[in-house]
Every structure is written in C-alpha cells, then in structure tokens.
Design brief:
Strand 4 and strand 5 form a beta hairpin. The termini are close together. Helix content is about 15%, strand content about 40%. It has an 18-stranded mixed sheet that branches. It is globular. The protein is of the alpha+beta class and about 290 residues long. The chain has four helices and 18 strands.
Amino acid sequence: MAEKIAFTKMHGVGNDFVIVDGRDSNDHDWSALAVEMCDRHMGIGADGLIILERTLFADLMMRMYNPDGTPDVCGNGLRCVARYAVEEGIVNKDILYIGTLAGVRRAQLHRDESGQIVAITVSMGQPQFEPASIPMHVAQEPVIDFPLEVMPGETLLITALSTGTTHAVTFVPELPDDERFLAISPLVERHPLFPERTSLMWCVLEAPNVLSMRIWERGAGETWGCGTGACAAAVAAVLKNCASPNVPITVRSKGGELIVRWCPGAEIEMTGPAERVYRGFYPLCQ
C-alpha cells in the first residue's frame, strides 16, 4: 500500500496552507511535495506547505514552502501553526515560541469567554530596510518610493523592505484590475533588482490607518491574504506618513482583515484569525 501523509488544511484570511506534523518524519523531499500538494488541480491545493519540526530553540519549528517548492516565511501560516500546535496538544500553553527561517517568533492566542480561540497575535520581528537585507540591488536606504521601471513606459513607485521575506509595496489610487495586475505583478516579482524575487503589495489608503491591498506573492501568484505582506504594507504606510506609528493599522485583502501595529525601532505585531478547514491523508506515489 502507498504511504500516506496525514495533513490538516488551515487558512488565515483566505491564505491557505497544508500543515504536516513532520517531527518524526524528516526523510521526505518536502520541497518537491510542496509542488504536488499545493497544486489546486492535481493536489490538495494551497498557498503553501508547512512542516512542523523539533527544535532546541523554541517550542517547535515551522518550515514553509511556496507552491513552487521554494522555502519562505509566512505570517498567516505562523498563526495557523500556533493554533494547530495548541489544539493538537503539541504545546500546552497560549503563549508559544515558533522557530522560522527569519528567527524565533512569539505567538499569543486570544480566547472568548467560552474558551474558543478567536484570534492570534504574533511578533513578526523588526523590519529590515538595508538593501542587502531585502535584498535589492539599489544604493538608496530606506527604499521609499523608488521609481522601478517595469517595462518601457511603465514605472511603479516602490517601497521595499523585508519582514522576514522580501516585499515591494506600491501605493496606488485604486487597486488594479485583472489585466493590469496579472501583467505587471510577475514582472516586479522577477525584476533584476530583486535577486531573490519579491512579492508585490498593491495598496490603497482607504482612510487614516486603513489600507486595502491586492497581493502577488513570489512563488505563489495571487493570494487572498499575506501576513508578512500586510506587515510590510503597514510599515510602508508609516514610513510614508500615510499611517500613524504605534496604533492599530487595519489591512484588508480579499480574504479578510489583519491588524498590524508598528513603531520605528520596535518589532511588528500582527493580529488575525486562523481557521481549520479539514483533515485528510495524502498518498505518496511509489
């Protein structure tokens, strides 16, 4: 019989993940399996595969792979992992520490009067603005409103930074339609100035401290939510004086709302939901 991998499907504001407890099964090619399992036609379908592992430096380690198999960091996935770990009894406390490729992150679960988990706040670390840390091949620091030539006659003003993974944020009067979004976003993702590619957050300032965005994630394409991207958008809004520091900033996307708080010199905090969708078993080809 073919070997089967137990998994749980979860999402945070529509950003969906396949989560596998891999603490006792590290002999798989998770990068290749991410390509299989995340495929929305031939696999389970997800924006990423998350593997849980043991570590000496935190309560557990999460490794996230994009649908193209590349490793990455994910804020919505971080909240999903926190809820999964507590509900599965891996961690028996409502404040836990999770290892990521960007370092150890703190997660705190919030419950209602009946004890149900209603939201999770995660520490996302300090944003990085140095071009080498983004990374981006420019001399400007911080990278605010950099005129990025996407194609002849098409230039976007880009604010670039890393929130554990690279992001480019552009503020526009209105969110792009499908034609513009699908034409421009992949060109920004693979622009030569971004040696490791980049995600692109198209953002509109809807009201003071309220942003809406459309998301193109490197290695995944359009997603309904992006936690690291929401953090990058909020930080960019503060840098551009479009939002106030150290107050909640609401970031809306197709999948829902996240609340981000950041003050220069401090770590970013993000609060939002994490929901279980279903459990299942994925058969491995022999």
